[in-house]
Amino acid sequence: MFSKACEYGIKACIFIAINSYEDRRVSPKEIAEEINSPQAFTAKILQALVRNNVIKSVKGAYGGFEVSKNEIQYIKLSQIVKAIDGDNIYNGCGLGLEKCNEDHPCPVHDKFKGVRDELKHMLENTSLEELALNIKSGTSFLKT
Amino acid sequence: MFSKACEYGIKACIFIAINSYEDRRVSPKEIAEEINSPQAFTAKILQALVRNNVIKSVKGAYGGFEVSKNEIQYIKLSQIVKAIDGDNIYNGCGLGLEKCNEDHPCPVHDKFKGVRDELKHMLENTSLEELALNIKSGTSFLKT
DNA sequence: CATAAATAGGATAAAATTATCCGAAATAAG
DNA sequence: CTTATTTCGGATAATTTTATCCTATTTATG
Q1: Burial B120-131 (b: 16+ CB within 10 A, else e)
Q2: Backbone angles phi, psi at B98, to 5 degrees
Q3: 3-state secondary structure of A25
Q4: What are the residues whose beta carbons fall under 8 Å from the beta carbon of B11, sequence distance 6 or more?
Q5: What is the DSSP string of A48-95?
Q6: Torsion, Cα of A136, A141, B1, B4 (10° steps)
Q7: Residue A39: per-residue pLDDT
């Protein structure tokens, strides 16, 4: 469904959010350990998230990655996915047709509509906040 | 969402079905032209579909690929997808956790459930027949 | 039986994704 | 100002996916 990069990105954001609540910045090393991902690759993904203004980075000593405490509730999964995988998950045709729309639909166009709309709705209505809170409370897990 | 291989596989099955209704076998060359896919790669995918008993092949002169006319209505999208992409689309965790279930869910486990159930339901309830009929009637398209 | 027409399948190549490494640039603190 | 720390970003490698090529095998037909 998502690329590996996107999976890492989502998990990384959650871990960063948890730490930002405690005013702690985290490094790619810590993140990679916590979400069980390759460190250098994770760092690249973090860069993309920074460039797309999903998270912030502070260079130098005592630096690291963080996200504004009061923005966490407004950051949606869709922003993270879009920053990493782009928006083909929204716009792309299920069967890869260049031009696929109501007037010229691929064979699964209508069938797919429901699934994609549900996915889109989920991504746009799931906040980083709720995901982070569930991790904090031990209701869900970032690895194994 | 699906791999390229799977996209080609679905479109190929539809084209084969349409021709099987007319008792015509088709070659990878014809198929590739009709669904706008690389021929040799498409041939590989057809082999996988044959191995998984989704379609049938007949070697030698006047051979080609076909699907039993009276089976077309019972062949579901799910069979095609499973034959090519395997069943990780059903069982895999949305964030790639090795072990992700109700007792040990990933952060998006519940959120994802709806989307995946909808996808699964769609795949299991969409028959090759209806897809083929829509192509025949010009209601949907296999390329461009 | 010989021949032509097809699929099967192995070997290989190209492209995309995933992953690693290292030096440059920035920054906090002494 | 210097140093230690940390992200940034380019180069490169490994893996997976996508794609191509060529030969073997099968089979209908004359």
Answers
A1: eebbeebbbbeb
A2: -60, -55
A3: coil
A4: A95, A107, B35, B37, B142, B143
A5: HHHHTTSSEEE-STT-EEE--TTTTTT-BHHHHHHHHHTTHHHHS-TT
A6: 140
A7: 98
pLDDT in tens, B79-104: 999 999 998 888 889 999 999 999 99
With cut-offs at 50, 70 and 90, classify the pLDDT of residue B17: very high
Residues of B in contact with A38 (CB under 8 A): none
The helix-helix angle for A109-125 and A77-85 (nearest 10°) equals 120
From the number of C-beta atoms within 10 Å of its C-beta (0-12, 13-18, 19+), residue A114 rates as middle
Cβ atoms within 10 Å, residue A101: 10
Name residues 64-103 of chain A with a Cβ under 7 Å from nucleic strand D: 64-65
